[in-house]
Design goal:
Strand order of the largest sheet: 1-2
Shape: elongated
Number of helices: 5
Helix content: 40-55%
Structural class: mainly alpha
Protein name: DUF4371 domain-containing protein
Strand content: 5-15%
Order of helices and strands: HHHEHEH
Length: 128
Amino acid sequence: MDLLSFLAKYDDTLKYHFIDSTTFRGTSNRIRNDLIKCTADVVIDHIKSEIKKAPFVSIALDETTDVENLGQERFLVFLDVTSKRTAVTLFQIVCDIISSLECGSKFVAQSYDGAAVMTDHLGGLQVK
């Protein structure tokens, strides 16, 4: 809801519907989820547009434990892989993301947080 309030400052139509409308308050779970999905779709489309213009693409995979760490250029997705932290599963996730962004031919680098499942030289994600 905070994001909608912020966006309403810059969009008169949204401002009307969000603040003044008696029929739309954005408080139902369904409406909130729809708005989150719409916002995510716009952001992903923008990232895809940037990727199409970029000469190359790299990917960084890391677990996030500290909100102060701002080392990434673009945050694409958060996935809970707690129950499936195998190199094979992570490899499939990475392949799916690269495929969905249509950036396979521009993919030049990968980086990880150093966890064994990521960098193990025998069967880690990096090898796959």
